[in-house]
Design a protein that fits this description.
Chain lengths: 365, 97
Amino acid sequence: MKFVDEFREPELALRLVAQIRETATRRWVLMDVCGGQTHSLLRYGIELALEECVELIHGPGCPVCVTSCESIDFALHLAMLPNVIVASFGDMLRVPGSRESLLDVRARGGRVQMVYSPMDAVELAKNHPNCKVVFFAVGFETTAPATALAALHAEQLGLDNFRILVTHVRVLPAMEALMLSPVNRVQAFLAAGHVCAVTGFAEYDAFVDRFRVPVVVTGFEPIDLLQGIVDAVQQLESGSHSVSNCYTRSVGRQGNINAQNIVETVYEVADRDWRGFGSIQKGGLRLRNRFERFDAEKRFEPIAVNPIASANACLSSQVLSGQIKPTQCPHFGNACTPDSPLGAPMVSSEGACAAYFRYQWLQSK
Amino acid sequence: MCLGVPGRVSVWLDRDPLFARANIEFDGIQRECHMACVPEAEIGDYVIIHAGVAVCLVNQAEARRVFDELNRMNLLAELEMDESTGAAPIESKRDKP
Ligand code: SF4
């Protein structure tokens, strides 16, 4: 068993689709929280297959999409400083700030390096002792262990030229913000499987009790997703609401304690600005005082906030909160394409707009 | 960037608690990954790799149990359908080794 092909078996998928169709007596609104799930739902035609009985709306689970414009502008500014290298994941380099992206800045001579892992940025700092290497740390709880490990490595190696620009976000506070929104339509959540692999899902109990909404921990392959949808629809049909785990091969109730300890050592919970959402209480992480010397926000002079940022035409806030589908955005496929994106959801490989753009041929069949 | 991919632990390179590293195999390709979050992983275990770091172990017994259960349900549903339509049951479609 390789944990991929088996969970894509078409016969089983069709049976699960039939089961969902048989179970649903009305059209339920489910939100998949993670961008990886959004892509699978579109890529495998699940959204289309279930169109009549389930409306799938795609949540804020693309960390690149919710990274604030101010943070991106700050990274752009740092990349243009002498003897500074900004390193980040490939997706992050293409996301526009208020005017341009890290790739644009690189084209103008800024020093920007794509890395696969935060640990590669530590290596970069080791190999460039005369430069300051800033790792632009974006991501949910799944990525936080990797960036925390990078800070611990840099500390252990005694590097004084490593910096981290932390914009880590936390999923649960965003789900709370969505439920509290007056325009909320979500009736059940498919919770992000790999976030829960790290955090566990015990913390969802209080959320489910408070909002009386089913939360189903779900994986990323078609069978995983369909199983999660079966569970959510069954709960909705019976009027119950609980946390259930449909990704048991990777997620336990308590999550990964080692990973949590690593994150706890380096970060503490903090309020954070989410692009398209505004400030979310306890919506992110920041470095603890022990790691202050790596904190890019403390080690570099701040910059003035660009007022143009809020005037961007992108409707990402409505897309990421499920109010509109990407295809309902007037810029979709016109002014905004993956080659010239107006907003982050069209850039990132997990962005909902990019997923719709990539798989729209499937939708039109 | 936030996709986690399952890979198989093929060789441990370093078991230091902080700098733990192993070679992970993804469909025949080997990649060095950090293992500090799953120090208990053994050679042959599957782990989910995210941004170069293993974030959890894949519980193989659990995966098989869920898969077998789903297949059993699928087969049952098919048999029920076959009985109601009078068609011959579809045999051994899923009897893969
Ligand atoms: S299509 Fe482009 S402009 Fe519209 S919401 Fe998506 S990213 Fe923003």
